[in-house]
Amino acid sequence: MTLKKSPGRAFAAVAPLAIVFALGLLPPAPVRAASFYYRVQGPLTFSGIPPSSPTLTKRLERYAPWPGTRFLEWLPEGGMLVAERLGDRVRLESLTAALAPPRTLASMSLPVPWARSRGGSLAYVRLSDGHPQLYVEVGKGPARQVTQGDQLRGTPRWSADGRSIAFYGAGPGGSQGAVYVENIEQGGLPRLVVGGLEGRWRLLDWSADGQKLLLADVTRPEHDLLYVATLGGGAPQRLSVPAARIPSARFAPQGSAVYLVSDQGGEFEQLYRFDPGTSVLQRVSTDVPWDVERFAVSADGRYTAYTMDDDGCSVLTVIDNRLQLALPVPWLRNGVIGALGFGRGHRLAISYQSARRPPGVYVYDADRRVLERWTRRPATRPPVAARLIHYPTWDRVNGNWRMISAYVYLPPAPGPAPVLILLHGGVDSQFRPRWRPFIQFVVNELGFAVIAPNVRGSSGYGKTFRSLADGWQRDDAVRDVGSLLVWIGMQPGLDIHRTALMGRGYGGWLALNSLATFDGHLLGVIDVAGMADLTDYVTHAPAGRIEERIAQFGNTEDPSVADFLRHISPLGEVARIRQPVLIVQGLKGTGTRARNSQQLAYLLRYHRDEVWLLTASDTGNDFSVPADRQALRITVAQFLESLLSRRPRR
Length: 650
Fold this sequence. Notes:
Radius of gyration: 25 Å
Oligomer: single chain
Strand content: 35-45%
CATH topology of the domain at 52-63 and 381-533 and 569-580 and 619-644: Rossmann fold
Helix content: 10-25%
Number of helices: 11
CATH architecture of the domain at 52-63 and 381-533 and 569-580 and 619-644: 3-Layer(aba) Sandwich
Number of strands: 38
């Protein structure tokens, strides 16, 4: 089977229609009354979507998010703080021993991206009116909201003495960034300690003595810069660390040294220790071709732990610095480690999950070299494993075909099975074998094989691979999808004639563009908050992310770049998309993304009637409201079932 890209693009044919649409001059799109559905359910609007089947909804309920627990931090008074997810709620709990009954500190609706506890006080981040907000509960008093509007940007940091919380956010007037400190005991308005920060910054850590803050200027896409700010005053001082991507950094538990993850040494991100006094940068991690993801250092500096991303799976290594000995922990393999933290007695807490195991917390005793589970494993039906495969794509490296990684979930019934290609969101993100109940539903209940590739541009495979889809090469990722279709066509257990695509964000753009390119081989596409117009996506980037998007896609002030991005945008592909499409989009605070998604649905429907559009007015691109997420899952399941009812294209 040979897959070829259709010559030329059709954006010019629909551009005048898009202008008319923008001016509100286009008449209602013609639809067939017998097949068109429209209903409003609170903030949700279902356009062209049939009523859901009660039977399908009941089957899906069995795969509602199962309980899972993640490690947050060791508590100063002993034990650890964990977050247990129960459906669409989260409980913040303290644990004192392995498998001990937890003590609930708070319960609230999701999402809760950050929470910490000190001396009976609790702090956490929750969404309020579409923005993350910092809340503090002192003792048994009521929750107090510390931040307002879009002031909070990033993760707060709690001082070691438990008296203050620092966070980065919008400065006075909103034009620049600033760092604030909130005194837990005094309350009142947060105190401005660092102001006038141009571009995008992150607050990384608070020193053990409570006198310094570690900051990173992440404005430039090619490298980050580290700074240390003293709470006593003065401008932040830049550390003489080589300029590079620095996804994480932290003060050493003792002294002024800084541990950091950086790609300054080559293709991959590695762990280093930097001494500001001598400007010596010493490598800590072993020399392997994987990215270091996260790290932790024991309070006395005896042990250093870090995880590496080995083709999507986490590999944990613990180093005994006194013996200069690496202690691999092989028991937690074929999954993803989400958090690390050393506590008393050299105990390392680990959050771990895999395709077959819900999130749980384990503790590795580095002195005794013993691993034990601290949280109970919920009872679940036998899940389907994620199998790692590699398929050849269309270009060569050193004379050999370039290989692309993908995770495959196969249904238990014999094939040939229909296929859902799942494309990850984030321009340089990565699909990893985490616990995903909805994938289990699609595989077990609908009978799809799910394949999740990490096409060029994905992270985890080195700087060169991550840059292979930048600028004029952006459409090469679509060709990787085409190569996957070739691979599927060669597998006896998979049905190339019943293959669909699904993607979120960047993955939505990739799915739609692949449908336009390989239309004759696909049943349809599910686009969740995809980028329908790349020119708009770059031109209307937030102020702190303009340089990053220009580096990834090109500068739209160059007419040739703008023309190219229009060529590869779904809004320019309308005439070549002839299969059913489901578009899902949050409308709150999403600006041009929401407008472009609705415009795409309208233009597609103007030519055909198999276009489903689900919008939510109370959420953004992430569909973070629990009721909206449930509607999203049901609608996607409906759409996939409807594709299976169609006659396969052969």
